[in-house]
Amino acid sequence: MTTEALIIRENNNIGEADRFVTALTRDIGIIRASVRGARNLKSRNSTATQLLSYSRLTLHRGRDKYIVETAQPISVFFELRSDIVKLSLAQYFCELAGVLAPQEEPAEDFLRLMLNSLHFLAENQRDRHLIKAVLELRMLGLAGFMPDLMACSMCGAFESDSMWFSMREGSLICRECSPQQPVRGGCRITPNVLAAMRHINFSEFEKCFSFTMSDDGIRMLSKQTEAFMQTQLGRSFKTLDFYHSIPKE
């Protein structure tokens, strides 16, 4: 079969010339595959099966993994490889996709979200904190972890002077209801951050990156989507920890 795929992980420690990859494919989700001879720079499959390469793969299924017969690069996101901050964030996106995207079933929406995020990051077309927030919240929604941001979960109020967001329940509690229902593991969410999260959740895909906020607002949004992700999944990611450890301008 032939499918388009983004290489989200590579392992070169399997023999002298072979490469083992994890790929997010359009048609069959996450797969693990071996690429014979890919570590040979003269191999036609070398560039197309490196980490962050978006390629057209021809595959056949082996006993316990797929075999890449041919790989043709579509985009290698070269700009990400020369910037440690962008590269580390892109690697986090890949690790998150590896956890959330399905296996053995179509994953076109996951792939599309990843490709758009990497494109905006590579081309400096959006603030990286905004890209991160959109990818985290939208991908969680695709994987079945979409928070209920429509209204207060108790009284149905759409707006309030202040809202509390429960990271554990993925729901809202307005100021009037919060004394009756204390929010455990939650935080106060400002109106602009709530509006941004609603936009990310409910807008058409083509518009999910299209909103503006102050720099402080974007950073708060990114912190809250990250906290929600970690609470829902019950874990963090080494790539995310590394991204945060890098000194930034």
Structural class: alpha+beta
The number of distinct β-strands equals 9
What's the architecture of the domain at 2-135 and 235-245 in CATH terms?
A: Beta Barrel
Please tell me what the overall shape is: elongated
The number of helical segments is: 7
List unreliable stretches of 5+ residues: none
CATH topology call of the domain at 2-135 and 235-245:
OB fold (Dihydrolipoamide Acetyltransferase, E2P)
Strand order within the widest sheet? 1-2-3-5-4
In angstroms, what separates the terminal alpha carbons? 45 Å
Radius of gyration: 20 Å
What share of residues is helical? Answer: 25-40%
What are the secondary-structure elements, in order, as H or E? EEEEEHHHHEEEEHHH
How would you characterize this protein structure?
The model has no long low-confidence stretch (mean pLDDT 92). The longest helix has 19 residues, at 215-233. The chain has helices at residues 78-81, 84-100, 108-122, 128-142, 191-202, 215-233, 238-245, and strands spanning 2-11, 19-25, 29-35, 54-61, 66-75, 148-152, 163-166, 171-174, 186-189. It has a five-stranded mixed beta barrel with strand order 1-2-3-5-4. Strands 6-8-7-9 form a four-stranded mixed β-sheet, covered by helices on one side. The protein is α+β, with helices and mostly antiparallel strands. The chain is elongated and about 65 Å long. It has a domain at 2-135 and 235-245: OB fold (Dihydrolipoamide Acetyltransferase, E2P) (Beta Barrel). The chain has seven helices and nine strands.
